[in-house]
Write a structure and sequence with these properties.
Elements lengths: L8 E3 L20 H4 L17 E3 L2 E3 L2 E3 L10 H6 L14 E4 L5 H12 L3 E6 L2 H14 L5 E5 L5 H15 L4 E4 L15 H26 L10 E5 L4 H6 L4 H23 L5 E7 L2 E2 L2 H4 L4 H10 E2 L1 H14 L6 E3 L3 H10 L1 H6 L17 E2 L5 E2 L1
Parallel strand pairs: 5-6, 5-8, 6-7, 8-9, 9-10, 10-13, 11-12
Antiparallel strand pairs: 1-4, 2-3, 14-15
Bound molecules: 2-acetamido-2-deoxy-beta-D-glucopyranose (2 copies).
The site of one 2-acetamido-2-deoxy-beta-D-glucopyranose has 4 residues, from loops.
Pfam family, one: adh_short
InterPro entries: Chl_b_Red (IPR052625), NAD(P)-bd_dom_sf (IPR036291), SDR_fam (IPR002347)
Keywords: Signal
């Protein structure tokens, strides 16, 4: 595929604390193609402190967008009181979808799927290069569609705030917010895992989802109200069954079960608070052939993945229509149920013994010609 160069232009978050005008800008761009002819991207985030700006003592990192993106810090107290700043109801057919960590794996596949249906998508990532690559590919594959990204560490409150403002500016209305960003720790016993790794993984998985839910609700509560949920937030938690079944570390499982509780408690809380337009749900993608699953996986586990796991796009193609169709609150959308997992293992037994679908019996990735693979077996786009 022809790579488009110079699609990305960074611009600094414009931190103005006065007007709540980000709600009036729908952020819909028309002559995108002209606007894409801009300079080479620069490094705007990561730990390059000099590239970040300080606002109220916290750092905001830069923005990567397909054109001159600018963000205003939302003056929350003003906006919450100001009913006249409610955004207008958009074209029902085009939904605004936010996916955290959408630059690889399942998040990327979901972004691709929503764009292919004609919806508008915002992604984020901590790593600017990964984000830039993902945006370039998504833009090239979905010409004329609305897709933007921003560097954001979901465990950082200021980043998440800036990201939510960016999403509102670009989408107008945020219909769906998917807390997809997640990490695993190395598969060691808790006592042997680096303390900093535990803090980082809990930060991304738990604090990240909490902060993102908080921002998403603050965005959605200002959108047109409704008696039934029309705006939806998704967390990727584990059921008790999922936690028992998964072979990930104790830290990872702990965070994932916490997210299930978050969905349940938050759903009740916002209904009780009268925010009836917002639904909160759980999304269980099952086993997806990504870094998260394949990191440190054993040969036996890999042989099981032949029957239980799927490539991200297969899972995304199944989940995206169900995400779009969700109604009510506290629903659970799963790719793999206990019954279907049991059936897959039973029917796929020869694959577990002999290998062949994704991994051979020694746990090596079965390579399909034309595809490239990472050392851990993850297919490279
Ligand atoms: C980018 O945005 C800034 C701030 O709104 C503006 O001053 C500048 O002229 C814009 N640049 C382009 C190329 O549109
Ligand atoms: C999960 O594992 C625990 C401990 O082994 C067990 O008590 C519990 O019933 C299991 N739950 C499910 C849903 O499998």
């Amino acid at each position: 595929m022809a790579m488009t160069v110079g699609l990305l232009v960074p611009s600094w978050a414009l931190l103005r604390s006065s007007s709540p005008s980000s709600f009036r800008h729908g952020g819909h761009s028309n002559n995108r193609q002209q606007q894409l002819l801009l300079q080479r991207k620069e490094t705007v985030c990561g730990n390059a402190g000099a590239r970040c700006r300080k606002y109220k003592g916290q750092q905001f990192c830069g923005i990567v967008g397909s054109h001159n993106a600018s963000v205003q810090a939302r003056p929350r107290t003003v906006e919450k009181a100001a009913g006249e700043h409610k955004a207008e109801r958009p074209d029902q057919k085009k939904k605004g979808v936010v996916i955290t960590g959408g630059s690889k794996g399942l998040g990327y596949a979901l972004a691709h799927q929503f764009l292919s249906y004609g919806h508008k998508v915002i992604i984020c990532n901590r790593n600017e290069d990964q984000l830039a690559t993902a945006l370039q590919t998504l833009q090239a594959e979905h010409e004329g569609s609305i897709v933007y990204g921003m560097c954001c560490d979901v465990s950082n409150a200021a980043d998440v705030c800036a990201f939510a403002s960016f999403a509102v500016e670009k989408l107008g209305i945020v219909d769906i917010w998917i807390n997809n960003a997640g990490e695993v720790t190395s598969k060691k016993i808790l006592a042997d895992v680096e303390a900093s790794e535990i803090v980082r993984v809990c930060g991304t998985n738990v604090i990240g989802s909490l902060l993102c839910c908080r921002e998403a609700i603050n965005v959605m509560r200002l959108q047109p109200s409704s008696e039934l949920p029309i705006f939806h937030i998704f967390n990727m938690g584990f059921s008790q069954w999922g936690a028992n079944f998964t072979k990930s570390s104790c830290t990872h499982k702990t965070t994932k079960v916490a997210l299930t509780q978050l969905t349940s408690s938050l759903s009740s809380e916002i209904q009780a608070a009268g925010l009836s337009s917002i639904g909160v749900h759980n999304l269980s993608p099952g086993m997806v052939l990504t870094d998260l699953l394949l990191k440190d996986s054993t040969v036996v586990a890999r042989r099981f993945f032949n029957t239980l796991a799927e490539e991200p796009e297969t899972v995304a193609a199944s989940l995206a229509p169900r995400i779009l169709a969700v109604q009510g609150t506290r629903k659970s959308i799963s790719y793999l149920s206990p019954a279907s997992a049991f059936l897959k293992v039973a029917l796929g037994f020869p694959q577990i013994i002999q290998g062949g679908r994704f991994f051979d019996k020694n746990g090596n990735r079965v390579e399909v010609s034309g595809n490239r693979y990472q050392e851990n077996g993850v297919r490279i786009r």
